[in-house]
Write a structure and sequence with these properties.
By secondary structure, the chain is an alpha/beta fold. 53% of the residues lie in helices and 8% in strands. The protein contains 15 helices and five strands. A five-stranded parallel sheet has the order 2-3-4-1-5, sandwiched between helices. The longest helix is centred in the last third of the chain and has 21 residues, at 230-250. The termini are far apart.
Length: 344
């Protein structure tokens, strides 16, 4: 298994006794990473079964696609954990030899879930930028046939973390026929990937988390104060999304909320950005559920929506970097307001 320099996985990309320089090169680079990073976090059989049940529609599509696997598959939507589990489910489905694959119990399935299958290459963009050096190391392996009698699976987790140079290098690999090799790109939304990568892939959209698909509560004033429960956080995020929508239309009301002491904590800010991403995705399919999604759909053009997507990603990065949540959201709201005002 080959891995990005920034990934948390260790390498098992070279079978014992392999002598090919490319395999040796990938293995040596990854062994160096293993000394610096944590071992790969396996996905348990229970986690995979739960994810497949929660994403039953996508799981059924994957089983159907396995009859003639596409070279490039893109999984969007869901949570990062769901996308990872379904990508490993796909790897298991491609390589399981039991009567009803994937059984998620045999040696091949277990190795896929543990990320130790020797034909699995897992590049973890959640740990940092996936760099061009990693993609070049991977390309040196791709000219070789899979080592087992199944398929080679290349998973790019949080593929939006590909550097521009790495994305272009990957694109060259996708342009060349790779018999027996399947690439799986994982991202919250396809719009966060290079359009040229998306155009070469088969896209499946995972169901959003239950908390984001729940019925929208009744309208009311935005509640301030610490959030205690999952449902309360979601309700407050929906309320705050309503305040944001009003601000995008009128330029008023937002800073009074975020300026109140303790009104916005980091978890609420993260939930709001996820809610915005959900509504942005729904706006692109013509089915927004909130007023905010209607603004994305009606008051912004495609370029504006792409800019919002980038701004949401930057806001999430700022929150991860411990920027004060009210400052991160104020910047996001101001950026969105400028886009909505420009369109109108």
């Amino acid at each position: 298994m080959a891995t990005s320099k920034s990934t948390s996985t260790r390498a098992t990309g070279k079978p014992a006794g392999a002598k090919t320089p490319s395999a040796r090169g990938v293995a040596s680079a990854a062994v160096k990473n293993a000394a610096e990073d944590l071992p790969p976090r396996p996905v348990s059989r229970e986690e995979a079964v739960t994810a497949a049940a929660r994403q039953a529609r996508v799981a059924a599509h994957l089983c159907a696609l396995a009859k003639r696997p596409p070279q490039v598959l893109i999984l969007e939507g869901g949570t990062p954990a769901d996308r990872e589990a379904m990508a490993l489910f796909w790897t298991a489905r491609l390589n399981c030899r039991e009567d009803e694959p994937p059984c998620l119990s045999c040696r091949r399935c277990s190795q896929a879930l543990a990320k130790t299958h020797r034909d699995l290459f897992f590049l973890d963009g959640s740990q940092g930028t996936i760099k061009i050096e990693t993609v070049r190391e991977l390309r040196s392996i791709l000219g070789e046939p899979p080592r087992d009698d199944g398929f080679r699976s290349v998973i790019l987790h949080e593929a939006q973390s590909l550097s521009t140079e790495a994305a272009n290098a990957l694109l060259k690999s996708l342009e060349e026929p790779r018999p027996g090799t399947c690439f799986t790109l994982l991202a919250a939304q396809r719009e966060r990937l290079l359009p040229t990568l998306v155009s070469r892939g088969w896209v499946l959209t995972l169901a959003w988390p239950v908390s984001l698909r729940a019925g929208v509560p009744g309208e009311g004033d935005c509640v301030v104060g610490p959030a205690d429960t999952e449902g309360e956080i979601y309700r407050r995020a929906v309320d705050l999304a309503g305040t944001l929508a009003a601000f995008l239309r009128t330029g008023r009301g937002w800073f009074q909320i975020t300026g109140a002491r303790g009104a916005v904590d980091r978890e609420l800010a993260r939930r709001l950005t996820v809610l915005c991403q959900r509504e942005l995705a729904r706006a692109m399919t013509g089915a927004p559920a909130l007023d905010l999604g209607l603004i994305f759909a009606r008051d912004m053009d495609a370029r504006g929506r792409r800019t919002v997507d980038v701004a949401l990603a930057e806001c999430q990065d700022a929150l991860d970097a411990n920027v004060r949540p009210e400052l991160a959201l104020d910047w996001l709201a101001t950026r969105m307001h400028a886009l909505a005002a420009h369109r109108s």
